[in-house]
Design brief:
mainly alpha, Cytochrome p450, about 70% helix, globular, binds protoporphyrin IX containing FE, Cyt_P450, Corytuberine synthase isoform X2, Cyt_P450_sf
């Protein structure tokens, strides 16, 4: 209780790596995930994301997008029977398209492309994730940070710039399409942001952060769960039986998920394993 009541701010703080654009104070005030202060921008973003993306109403209204994307993924994998498929690549492309359709009502990656590495956003996210995994001397000795000895911050800022250019084009297209009446009928996350009148820098950073937060996490959890199941044939058999009992036809809907209780436990277990490191990171950052 003491942790939650007295040390909540310290424990909810995050170390902001130098490679991220949000490290600069100019951009940090716009950040959702890395904001150093709970300022007005941060509060507005939290409210916007809660209402438009994470509320139960928003989640259930997105069900049909997720179901369509899962169907496309199954068809894609089905066509490659007998061939090697890199599950992480496929899942991360599918998750990108799910988020793309939820946020800006369009696919961002072409799943049918053999390489699955197409799409500027995919390249940017991969490069950021690669950069962030390199130990950075600026994080270990912040005094040396202005020198950016490994040029990681420079590369990180270039990627942020590329991502901003991409979002700028998408936002411009949407505004123009709305004017000539060919935009999607429904209001999506992008419309909600445009309506709120958020500054351009904030929108660019928000999109980048949401895609970073949502893509690798989801594909890692699925890849880890599959790997753990392969290592545990007894558990794999239970999952296979559960799937065979619950899913009679080829089409999977979200209503099936509630009945896949054993699979859910496996995924939760792997999520805990995957993200235990994040908790350790947070505790070490806390100024207790
Ligand atoms: C299996 C998938 C996912 C896992 C395991 C996961 C895990 C996490 C964890 C552990 C944190 C907290 C990090 C910390 O406190 O330091 C976090 C934060 C966050 N996640 Fe996820 N996440 C997943 C999917 C998503 C998706 C799909 C989105 C949305 C697009 C998302 C958006 C966020 C955001 C915005 C935050 C920061 C929240 C804040 O600062 O208050 N995540 N996630």
């Amino acid at each position: 209780m003491e942790i939650l009541r007295i040390h909540d701010r310290n424990l909810s703080g995050r170390h902001v790596p130098h490679v991220l654009a949000a490290k600069s104070l100019e951009l940090n005030r716009f950040s959702l995930g890395w904001s150093l202060k709970c300022n007005e921008f941060w509060r507005n973003l939290r409210t916007l994301c809660r209402e438009e993306l994470f509320s139960s109403k928003a989640i259930s209204s997105q069900a049909c997008i997720r179901e369509t994307k899962v169907k496309e993924m199954l068809e894609f994998i089905g066509k490659r029977e007998g061939k090697v498929v890199r599950i992480r690549d496929v899942v991360s492309a599918v998750v990108l398209n799910m988020l793309g359709n939820i946020m800006v009502s369009r696919d961002l990656v072409n799943l049918e492309d053999e390489s699955v590495h197409t799409g500027e956003i995919n390249r940017i996210l991969r490069n950021i994730s690669d950069l962030a995994s390199i130990p950075n001397i600026s994080d270990i000795y912040p005094l040396l940070a202005p020198l950016d000895l490994q040029r990681l911050r420079k590369k990180g800022m270039e990627l942020h710039q590329r991502s901003s250019e991409m979002w700028k084009t998408i936002i411009k297209d949407r505004k123009e399409n709305r004017e000539i009446g060919i935009a999607p009928n429904h209001q999506d996350f992008l419309d909600a942001i445009i309506k709120k009148g958020c500054p351009e820098d904030q929108v660019n950073l928000l999109f980048l952060e949401l895609f970073i937060a949502g893509t690798d996490t989801s594909s890692w959890v699925i890849e880890w769960t599959m790997a753990e199941l392969i290592r545990n044939p007894r558990c794999l058999k239970i999952v296979e039986d559960e799937l065979a009992t619950e899913i009679k036809h080829n089409s999977i809907t979200e209503s099936h998920v509630a009945n896949l209780t054993y699979l859910q436990v496996c995924i939760k277990g792997c999520t805990l394993l995957c993200h235990f490191s994040s908790l350790i990171g947070q505790l070490s950052h806390a100024k207790l």
